[in-house]
Amino acid sequence: MESGKRDQLESKWHQIRGKIREAFGKIIHNSELMCAGKTEHISGQVQGEIRKINAMMLNGYK
Length: 62
Known about the structure:
This protein is mostly helical. It has a domain at 22-52. Helix content is 87%, strand content 0%. It has two helices and no strands. The protein has helices at residues 3-27, 31-59. α1 packs antiparallel against α2. The relative contact order is 0.17.
């Protein structure tokens, strides 16, 4: 699998996993788990945006 696709899947995985952890933390009233989930979700979003910026730089700002 090429690096770009792998990075994209990885960022999506972190976003989804973070949302699940956040929701589960809300259900069981565990603020630590909820915060960890939110952090992972945001981390996945940032990772995805960095991937997009890198792709734009490599492709010449199309």
